[in-house]
Design goal:
The complex is a heterodimer of chains A (210) and B (388). By secondary structure, chain A is mainly alpha-helical. Chain A contains nine helices and no strands. Chain A has helices at residues 2-29, 33-64, 73-92, 105-114, 119-128, 133-143, 148-163, 169-172, 179-206. In chain A, helix 1 crosses helix 7 (148-163), helix 2 runs parallel beside helix 5 and helix 3 (73-92) packs antiparallel against helix 9. Chain B is built from 17 helices and four strands. In chain B, strands 1-2 form a two-stranded parallel sheet. Chain B has helices at residues 16-35, 43-66, 70-96, 103-107, 118-128, 143-157, 161-164, 169-175, 194-209, 213-218, 233-257, 261-265, 268-277, 296-300, 308-313, 325-329, 350-384; strands spanning 100-101, 227-228, 282-286, 335-339. Chain B is mainly α and 388 residues long. Chain B has three domains: 14-95 and 349-383, no CATH class; 99-280, no CATH class; 282-346, 2-Layer Sandwich (Alpha-Beta Plaits), CATH 3.30.70. The chains are: A mainly alpha (210), B mainly alpha (388). The interface between A and B is medium-sized, with 20 and 15 residues.
Chain lengths: 210, 388
């Protein structure tokens, strides 16, 4: 539930920042709602693969580092504090996009030359791996999970939360250029960051989760 | 290029007879609502009823006669906030002996439910069939009662609820009128989106934690109503947050900006009410032929609901609370109340009257009980030295 809510609070931001780079292609290629839906589904599956690989990575960190630590809250707590402060800054003050889609243009071009039909999946994968503060917070949350399944489920719920905002895309490209939604999404993410900041402080001070 | 700024008041003062005739329905309605069908026999109760009735109807008379809305609405609206706080706190002290709410009170469901909690209770109620608030479902200050009132007022007034019903809004409205000119003039447009972000954030957090997040952490008005007894570090942090928000958003910023900053830049219910404005029949429109782009309406709007784009479009933003301040301020009478689906004629005062009847009645009903209670308690305080 926590991961789903985190995803939900950041979904508007994800879509308004990252999707407009890809939507022209997705909608331009699609000849109808069905075709657009297939392309969007491919894009989302790419995102899911990206998220699940990070779930495995988070579990790996849990197994290798966290198991040996007496009080894991002393690691998770500061991580929450740092990433939530980043999220608050990003929510209220940052104007530049944190999405990796922009900085992986060269790589995507090379991949597309080899495999032209892969754009939606590759695009999904790279946007899925964007190191924006909400993603890093989700990563910290997943690090707390003790089994690989729990960690993957956490990221899956995060993925579901963010993906809800992609549903209208096949129909109209609704959110393209909708600046107000982007601002609201970012500010909501910033406010959710305050909750994580508080959680981190409480973890650090008391060694317990609220 | 700016047009001529000569005042071309289209709406002249009404004749005394016509005004009295138009005020008659309001006199009957307010008398019926205030007396609740029986005239009190106790002296102080009768005095309170008479003063309240005369006060309400004098203000309505002036609204109708002068054509000014906000000038007289604000008097009643600020009065509502003051008498509400006075009446509510004195009741709490009489019943509990303190403004602090203990865990036992919450377990017993004795927490009064206010309209600001509505946005965060809807989604958990829909999905989990759980009301995440320690209050009663039925009875005085109950969840059910407030929901019914909220639906009714939203249907009748849309976001007009924020200027004609909300018993907190008058506090910052009052503070925003202290200075003659604002000290802080430029507020970035992006902050007007904050209420929607707060709404999204608290709805999500309430669904996640299954607790009324806004009430627990953010509601600034707990400072002047009731608050949870400080028994832990968490409650202490919550108290610091909501008191700071009260001082900042309800006192300091309204004084410095001459705007209702809590309503315009923070309140999640306000954001939700903006949606109800879309379905409400009353709206504020701008006659572009008359508008001389003097921007007075932009400067005076307390909730940041008018900008240059609005002037170009001929209509205000969805966040308009229909207070009438811009209409009163416009030297050209270019702004006017309008009923959707009717002709766009700024010289018609009938649209304003059609809006005023339900809006004023709502404000009078909500103020009536608190005002009479406050008068009775004040008389007791003067005569006996105690309000209990």
């Amino acid at each position: 539930m926590e991961a789903f809510i985190l995803g939900l609070s950041n979904g508007a931001t994800c879509i308004t920042y990252c999707a407009p780079v890809l939507v022209p292609y997705l909608l331009g290629e699609g000849k109808g709602i069905l075709r657009n839906s297939v392309l969007t589904a491919q894009f989302l599956s790419g995102r899911l693969v990206g998220y699940l690989s990070f779930a495995v990575f988070a579990w790996g960190i849990n197994r290798s580092i966290m198991q040996g630590v007496n009080k894991p809250d002393l690691i998770i707590g500061p991580a929450y504090i740092v990433f939530s402060l980043l999220l608050i800054f990003y929510g209220f003050f940052r104007t530049r996009t944190p999405c990796t889609t922009k900085c992986t243009t060269g790589l995507r071009h090379r991949l597309l030359t080899i495999w032209p039909g892969s754009l939606p999946i590759i695009a999904g994968l790279v946007t899925g791996l964007s190191f924006c503060p909400p993603f890093l917070l989700a990563f910290t949350g997943a690090m707390e999970k003790t089994t690989i399944l729990q960690s993957m489920f956490f990221f899956f719920a995060f993925f579901l939360g963010t993906s809800i905002f992609f549903i209208p895309l096949p129909f109209s490209g609704l959110f393209r250029g909708f600046a107000a939604l982007r601002i609201i999404g970012r500010m909501a993410a910033g406010l959710i960051g305050v909750y994580y900041l508080y959680s981190g402080i409480i973890m650090l001070i008391g060694g317990y989760t609220i | 290029m700016k047009k001529d700024t000569t005042d071309t008041s289209a709406i002249k003062k009404r004749s005394l007879f016509k005004t009295l005739l138009l005020c008659l329905p309001m006199m009957l309605l307010t008398f019926m609502m205030l007396s609740q069908g029986s005239i009190p026999t106790a002296g102080e109760r009768l005095f309170a009823l008479a003063v309240t009735f005369l006060f309400f109807n004098l203000l309505f008379f002036l609204m109708v006669r002068t054509g000014k809305t906000d000038r007289f609405r604000s008097i009643l609206f600020i009065t509502l906030a003051v008498v509400f706080v006075f009446s509510f706190i004195s009741n709490l002290i009489a019943v509990r002996g303190s403004m602090a709410l203990s865990q036992a009170h919450m377990i017993e469901g004795e927490t009064p439910f206010c309209h600001l909690v509505i946005p965060m209770t809807i989604i958990p109620a829909a999905f989990t069939k759980t009301i995440i608030f320690p209050g009663k479902i039925l009875g005085k200050y109950s969840i059910g009662g407030m929901f019914v009132i909220w639906i009714g007022v939203s249907l009748a007034l849309g976001r007009g609820l924020c200027s004609w019903f909300c018993f907190f809004g008058g506090l910052e409205d009052g503070f925003s009128r202290i200075l003659k000119k604002p000290i802080i003039k430029n507020i970035s447009k992006k902050w007007t989106y904050l209420p929607y972000a707060v709404l999204l954030g608290i709805v999500l957090m309430s669904a996640l934690t299954l607790s009324p997040t806004y009430c627990k952490w953010l509601c600034p008005f707990k400072t002047v109503t009731e608050y949870v007894e400080i028994t832990s570090v968490q409650v202490l942090i919550q108290t610091i947050i909501f008191v700071s928000l009260f001082i900042g958003l309800v006192i300091v910023l309204p004084i410095l900006t001459k705007r209702r900053t809590q309503c315009g830049l923070f309140c999640p219910l306000g954001a939700l009410q903006s949606v109800t404005n879309k379905t409400n029949v009353f709206e504020v429109r701008i006659d572009q032929d008359k508008c001389i782009q003097c921007n007075k309406c932009i400067k005076v709007c307390p909730t940041f609901s008018i900008d240059e784009e609005s002037l170009g479009r001929g209509s205000v933003k969805a966040s308009c609370t229909k207070c009438g301040k811009c209409i009163d301020a416009c030297p050209q009478k270019a702004l006017f109340y309008h009923v959707k689906g009717t002709s766009l004629n700024s010289t018609f005062d009938r649209y304003r009257l059609l809006f005023l009847y339900p809006a004023f009645l709502v404000l009078a009903i909500i103020t009536g009980g608190f005002m009479q209670d406050a008068i009775v308690k004040t008389i007791k305080l003067i005569t006996t030295g105690t309000i209990m």
